[in-house]
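Exercise: predict the fold of this chain.
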Amino acid sequence: MLADREWQEGASWGDPRPGHPEGEVAAHIEEVLRNVDSEALDPADRERLRFVALIRDTFKHRVNRTQPRSGENHHAMIARRFAERYTDDRELLEVIELHDEASTPGRRGNVA
């Protein structure tokens, strides 16, 4: 998956911004992976969480900022569509799609 040019493009995108002072998505991914590695005790959970961490924010660059950021134009849904090429694990796909739900009012209502 990491060799996929689409993933690489998304991981290299970003400048420092509110909520992500680290800039590039790859720097954020590294931070999340460190947290996963220090907190996940079960090897299977660790593997699944690492998969989510590698994808969840990698497609923010694909959001059309002139349109509402919901449904198919939300970075989480774009990330889910990408992840579907690499897994059919419904739980993982839902975590990727809904990872911002708690911080985005009404987000679940936008899910197809």
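Check your answer against the key: DSSP finds five helices and no strands in the chain.
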